Every structure is written in structure tokens, then in C-alpha cells.
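=== Structure Prediction Worksheet ===
Name of assembly: unnamed complex
Input type: mixed (protein and possibly other molecules)
Chain count: two
Listed entries:
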Amino acid sequence: MTRSDRTTRTVAEMFRTALFWAILGAMISFSIAELNPVYFVGFVGAMLVAWFASVRPARPAPRKVINTILLLVITIAGIETLRSGVGVSAFAVFVALLLVVKLLDLRGPKDEGQVLVLCLSILVAAVLTSNSFLTGAMMLIESVLLLRAFVLYQMYTVVKLGRTPSSRVNKRAKIDIRSMMLGAGFLCVCIAGVLFIVLPRNVGSQAFGQWGASRSVSGFTDEVELGRPGRITMSSTPVFDMTVRNRDGMNVGEENGQPVYLRGAVLEEYESGNWSRSNVMRVPLAERPQFFSANTTLKPRDRGDYSRWDYQYEIALRTVSDGPVYLFTPWRPVEFDTMNQPIRLGYDFKRGLFMKDGVGRSSLQYAVRTVNDSFRPTQLSDGALRRPIDPAGINERVAQRAYDIVRNGGVEPNPSLRPIQMDAAAVRLLETHLRTQYKYTLDALPVPPGRDATEWFLFDRREGHCEYYASALTLMCRSIGIPARVVTGYIASDFNTVTGQYIVRESNAHAWVEAEIAPDHWRTYDGTPPGDFHDLHVPDPSLTRSIAKLYESIEFLWGRVVVGYDSDTRDQIVGSNVGDLGLANLSDRLLARFAAGRTKLITRAAIVALVVFSASMFLGILLTRTEKVSRLIRAIVGSVFARIGLRSFTRAQHAEPVDTLEHAVESALASNDIPRPSWQPLRQHLREHQEFIAQQSDLSNALWESADLIYQSRFSRSPAVPATHLNELVQTLRTSENIAQSSRPATDKQI
Amino acid sequence: MSALQSHHARLRTGDSDHSDSFDSERSIKSNELPIRRESKLTFGGLIYIGVTVFLAIGAVNSQNNLLFWLFGVAIATIIVSGLFSGSALMKTQLRARVLNEVHAGQPQRLHYSVRNKSSIFPVFACLISEESKKIQLDGKRVPASVVHVAPRSSVSTYGSFTPRVRGRYIFRQIRLSTRFPFGLMQKSLIFEQSRPLLVLPPAINLKRDLLNATPAHGEQVLRKARRGGESNELWGLREYRAGDPRRRISWKHSARRGDLVVVEQAESYAMRFWIMIVEPDTLDEVGRVHTERAIAVAAALFEQAGTQSTPIGLWYPQRSVRFDPLTGRAQAGRAIRALALLDLDEDAVSLTPAPVRTRDRVILIQRGTTLPDRVSASRIIDTDYPDSWLHRSGSLPDGLRDPS
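=== Predicted Assembly ===
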């Protein structure tokens, strides 16, 4: 090998390297988008095994093995589809598995092209699955890798078609390729960037239904089911970002400040360990959902004492799914601002409930202004009365425990004897008891049959997660006559000093209690032990955490600039004069018609019919007009027939049996003392010895048939006979040869 | 080494890969510029557009900005693809070398030189292929490939063409195409450069003793042969007849006898061969194959004889082909080329015996062993029994195999 050979690489080598990185990038992108380490280990491992076992040594697996694995893959994909439904995730798993199988079956440029297309499909699926910063970064990296692989694939194909696989790429060619790729990449980024900015948003959203996995990443639930076994998720997937400002517009968020309780659902009905919304809440809100344009401020009709707000919470939900979605707000909200996005909203200021309705979107921002009850003295009139409570459904042991705790704390447990001003102290006693006497755990065990979940928690288990504490505190409050309710939502405690925002994750989902300590005065109480609570919800200031925060800052910027890019931002950049070319109106009209009823069904059916018809026509034209395709199909059918033994398909495969047959014929003739001279054609020789050969009918038939087959194989275009028949003839000839030898005199044998 | 083999060897020494031979004398120096340009969407491009539409629908439907970004990249890729491949081919020239003779079934290298006159854009990943329909049908083509042509430089490359049947081929149009950079569009330049190629009958490996072991016709033939001939041996004297050349007049004996006497010389003893081809009465598919076999055998015999000093001639009465026996490679070359150009679609004429002399040996090539009327032969090569004339290690090329 010359020095030049060592420094230059063949086109095939360069392409294979680029292909390897493109596949690896696709697998990593998919794993990151799914946030699933099992996928990462499984797919990347399988890909590496397939690459080094099959692709690198250019040793494709046998067809039978590939077909078996393919069957397995289809089965796995089917199971995955049944498990998680027909969606992008199941599709991506299927494609990734298909890609691994394809790696075992790389036999030519077409296969390699298919692998590249599969990589592209995986990338699209990854983007559909997640729009996190890491996914976006991997998308950019994978785009470059794919670009390079596609460029080298063109050169590789040309080299393969020209049968010059050893073509090398010299130094100048390498420089030119790099320059071209840089130029192409730069142009692509520029054009794509311009298109990204200019393309109108909010046009045709959800016209074709929900694609991909549900866009909601909320970890909270509006139903509490105590006693369900399992483990509470600690996923760090961000749900929303929040900025807290005072009336002067100053950011008042603190890194180690008090956590903020962000309310989602209010649960008032308790039955057998399950908390759900009350009937009143189920027909939910004071105001029916209606459409509000951007920058609209909503206020309650009767603001009472809360005319002056204290804090403004600006919340940016990262993703919002279709249909009703809880908008998280602190207690007590007195104003709601839609900020720069129009929104379809239902709300109830009295209960502090806000629900978005309508289609989902990649981000949603709103602002809530609140008053802080703890800063205001509770004004109680002399004749203030508690709301009556129905104690039915509260376990007697739970009620007795509440009585004991309150009485031991020096407060009258009987509500008829206790002044309403002491209700706050009573609740505080119960809260303190739970915080100090019970342990926090994320492991949820099943409740023994026939036991009330809260009673079991209080008296036997004595450890549980926040829902148990909230349930116990609420029931104990109610048992001593204090109205209380379970609230589910999030805790905001993770403040990022770089972005000036709180970041709220799925793991911050929480349940707590609101007790009415005076008429229409609901206070927040939390029975969860504060030490454990701190460990779970307030992050430690370690180096890892600092790095994580840095990443979150980048993630925040990514979300703001790229993921959160919307029509308003577009108008700011492009100018509102450019407009959306009337597409928004057109889209709205079309969507309204779709939503009208039958038209929707008919239209979708028409689209499906059109797609099926076009695909059929396309395939039909391909099959009837493209000679190449029909040849390919014939070859495939022939190959299949040959494999199942219906037909032989290549002459080359039978070349060896024919040689064997020829040799057997020569031996048979020689052993019968009529050896064929080399100059004499076989048929002519047989004709000359016709009389002798005819004496042995088996031999005669075998010889003539063998002669025909040998002539056919060597001088005819007709397909060769099956190898099995050739073998039969060889056996017949050898048998006759043995008979001839055994019938000779012994002396002849010795000679 | 036969006449044709030596000729081909001479040509092969001129092969050189990837050397700058654009200005070589053997190049065709006209029509370097394309006569037309073509551009079409590839199947991959069609699929890609489908994916792009899918991305657009997905982006609009989900309002996912990453999908908007991917859609932008997809559109940008289509634009850049058209821009780059088109620009690279704007100033590309191509020259093709003249072609040599080749046997049917053997590959003929097709040499090209590509010049990139652009000072900015390099040319990448081009395929060069011949456009003639006859070539597509009657042979196997391997296109030439060019991985890279730097700006203001040129590159030589070659493809190959393996003709299936003998005859004259005219290579007229050359297509230089590229799908670079992403395989979405195929841009082509069509060049018009006419190059003829004579495809000789397929080369077959005959038994070496077919000519030498041909038996003579016996003593009677020998005696008959002792008549006036062209050799230097004196046979006798006779009276002068009108038309006798003056140089054959024996002036000494004429003076002695007083009348003009000419010297009659004996016929040459040198052995002469006639290859006679008789084609079947009906030229159906089988008949054609057997005729092609006969032609190939005749050509191979001429190749053999070209290396020996045996005079050999060709008599193909039904196609009016006659080459009187002569020695030498030139004679072999002429006969083989004549055989290569035979058109079996033309009407055959009636069969006539070979114009043999008394000691000539006739090798008759036909299907079957029955001698036609008025034809005598020293040896019959039966096209039905290839193993009687093929070398043991040889087999028939595809074009000569029995269609049944």
C-alpha cells in the first residue's frame, strides 16, 4: 500500500463511516426524545452489534434469520401498539427495530439508501415525540450527519454502478466535498431559518386530529385514589416556568424562599379512599368557557376586600393538550391576564379554578394576580357561622384521633362549643401532629381489603405520600367541624437565578389541604413532613445541581426562542403587515365546517379515499409500465418459488451437479467397457453402442437421459432441471457401475 | 497470437485510467458541448417530496415548531439540490474515444474524458452512459463513473459495453448525469458523438486439430490434381492457345518446333482449405442459433488459420460471401469482419457448391451430417454437436445456446 493509498480513503469507506454516525445519531435522538434509558441501551447496543457483526465484515445474515427477526419485530411492534396505542412512539419503536434488522441485511446501495430513509423517519418521530432542547440539539446534529451521509451516498452509488468500488477520494476532492457541504449546509440553514420565521402560525391547528403522544406533560391528577400500589413518579420533566413579581414589577423569586403552592384541582368528595370533585365542581365553573382575545384581564364580579393585588405570577406552560386543561394558579387569584395569546377559558374566581378549553398548543402563557391572605387579619363578625358539614363517610377512629389531638392541644374539639376564631389553631394542631408523627415515603402499598385507606394510614401504615397526609388532614378537620378540601397541583420551589424563574417539574406534583378557618376564608395547610418535603421538592445546591440549572437555563431559552415561537413573535419580526396571506381565515372556515358534523366525516373519508386511490394508481402505473419493477417482481416470485422447491431458478446453482452427472456417465461407460473417446460426442458414442447399452434397460434410460440433460445444460438456454433429479440419475449410473464391476471375473479386478 | 488478438492487445496498451487525456489524438474533437440538458425528479425525490408534504401537514396540525424547522430544512434541501447540481453541470464538457473491434460476449471499454471548465463549482458523482436503444437491447452496459472533477480540470474514465450479438453498432449519444448532492433531482447533459463499433462473432474455443486432422479425398483426388496448375513444377508442353500469357511461352521449344509452345506447370501441392457454411432451410429461432454457431465456428477457424501458413477461404453461398483461400492475418481479418456484418434478415440465395480445386479440402459447417446436393466435403462440423468441435474446457456463449 502506497503512502497515497493510506492517506486517501475509498468512497465506500467514507460512506460507511458517515452511515454509521447517521444511524447512531438517529438512535440517540430517538432515545433522548423518549427519555427512556432502556431504549438507549437496547437500540444503540443492538445497532452496534449489528454493525460490527454484519455490516463491517460485509457478512449479511442469512435470509431465514432475517425473516425470523423481522417476524419478531412485527410482533414487538404489535404489542407496543396495543400497549400504548397507535401513535408516533409505537411507530418509532417499529422503525428503530426495522433499522436494526436492515443492518443485518445490507447487500447493496439500495439497502443502504433505505437505511438512510429509516434514519430520517426516526428523526421525524423523535421531533414529534418531544421538543426539548436536547431533542432539538440532536435534531441539528443528526441533520448534519444525515446531510453528509446523503451526499456521500450519491458518490457511493455512482461508484457502485460504475463497478469501481476502489475509487479513492484524493485530498483535493475531500476539500471540495467539505466546501460544498459547508456551502450547502449554510444555504440550507439560511433558507430553513427564513422559512421558519415567515411561515404563518396558528393556521390549521389540529385539522387532522392529535398526532403523536399526548402533548400534556402534567404529572398531576384531579382524582386521588389512595391505596393504589406503585411508586410515585419522580420525573424531572419540566411542566411550566413561573416568574413572580410584585406590584412594582420586580422579580421577587428567591432561591431558598418559601415554596409556592400552585393549585390545580379542588377535591371535595371522599369515598373509600378516593377523592374526587364534587358535583358542584363537576358542572364546573361560574363562567362558561368562552373565547378571550390576547391581553384581556379578567376580574371577579365581586372583589370584596381583594381589590388590590399583591403578587403577579407569570406562568408559561410548556405544552398544553387538547380539551379542558387546568391552569395552575396560587391562592387567592383576583385577576387573570391572557397575556399575548388568545385563549378559550372557563373560570371561577371564588374557587380559584381556571380551565383552558379548545385545541392544544406548544406553549401557553398567562398571568395571575393574587392577594396574600396571610398578610391580612381575618375579620370575623360576631355572628359568623361555620358552614355545616356532613360527617358521614368519616371513619370513627379517624374522628376520635382528631378529637384527641385537638383536645390534647388545649382546643375544644366540639365545633358547637368551640369559637370559630379557634378553628385555625385546631387545624394547625392537626397539621403539626401529622408532620411530626408520621413518615414520608414514595412507595405506595395496597390497602388491606375492607379497610379505609386514611384510617389504615393513620393507625397501621403510619407512612405514605402527600395524598395520604392531605386526605388525613382533610378528614380530621371535617371531623371536628371545620370545612376542608384536598387540593392537587404543584409546588414551585426550584428557582433559577439565571433566568429569574421557577421551574416546575412533574416530580413537583403535590396534594395539600385548604381549610375554611372563617367564612369564605380558606387557608393552605400541608401535613406532609417538612424535612422530607424539602428533600423532595427543594433541590440541593451541589455542583450537579448547578450544571442542571445551567442546562435548564438553556432549555428555557430554547423554549422561549424556538419552541415558543408563535404568531406574535412572528409579527414582531416580520411585521404585522405581511399577514398570513389569508391562510388563517381559510383555515378557520374549513375547520368550522369540519367541526359542523357530517362534513367532518365525509371530508376525512374523502381524504382517505383520495390517498388510497392515488397510492393504488401510483403502484399500478409502476407495475404496468416499469419494466424494471416487473422484472424485480418476477425475480422475487421466482426466488420464492425456488425456495419452497417449486422451481429451480438459476443455472449456476446446478453447474456442479451437471459436472457430477457427466463424470458419472463417463465412469459408467468405462466400467461397462465402452469408454468414450475424448474426441467423440456423447450422443454419437451412445448411438454407436446402442445395441450393447440397450441390453440394460435401466442403464440405457439413465445414459440417454443424462446425455439429454448434459446437452441441455451446456448448450441450451432453457432452465436447468432440479438438482434432485440429477442426483437420482447419478445414483442410477453408479449402481450400474457397481453391478458391472461386481460381475467381472476376479482376475480382471486384480488387474 | 491471432490477427485480432494482436490488434486488441495493441489497443489495450493505450488504456489509462484517470489520466488527463482530454487532448489525446484519439479523442473526438467535435461536439464536446451538450446538445441538450435534461432534468427530472427521481423516485427518491418523489418520496422526499411526499415526506416534505407530510412534515408540512404535521407542522401545521401540531404547531410544533421543531417540525416547522424540519419542514424548512426539507424545502431548503430541495432548493439547494437543484442549485448545486445545476451549477456544477453548466460548464462541463465530454469527449469520447473512438471504439475498436470486439467479439460478441466480450466487454468493450468505452473511454471518456470529462472536463470541468467552471472556476468555482466542482463536479461530483456523475454517471456516463450510452443512450442508443440498440445498445440497451443487445448488450450489457456498465456506465462510467466520475467521483470528482475539480474546477478547471479534467478526468478520464471508462465504462464498458458487452455486446450480445455480432454486427455493427453505432454509439451516438452519451448521457452525463448526476443526482448530486441529495439524489432528489437528476440533471443530465446529452452529448452527440458518433462512434461505430464492429462486433465480431463470439469467440469460441475450438479443438486445435480441426484444420490439421481434416482428411484428404484420397489418391484419386491426388491424380486428378495432376493437371495444369500454378505451381513451379513443370508438367509438360502444349500448343499455344489464345489467351495464354506470353511469359509462359517456351521460346526455345517454339523455335525448335516452329510453332508456339507454352509450358504447362503442375498444380500446387500446398494444401488449401475452404470453410463452407450452409444454413438451414428455414431461419426460425433454432435455425438462427445454428447459423450463428456456424458463423462463430468459421470465425474461430479463421483465427486458428491466421496463425498458420495454411491458405484458407470462405464460401457462404446463401449469403454470397466468397474469399478465395489465402494465407495471412489480413485474410483472416477480412473474412471475420465479413462474417460479423452478415445480415440474416436478408433473403438467402440458392446453394451452390464450393469453387474448389482438386486438392482443396472443404470443411462444411452446417446443422446435421447430410451433405447437400452437389457439395462434397472433407469434414462436416455439425452445429448440433458442439462437443465434437468445442474444446473440452469450452462452453457455448449465451447467444449460441439452444433456445429450446
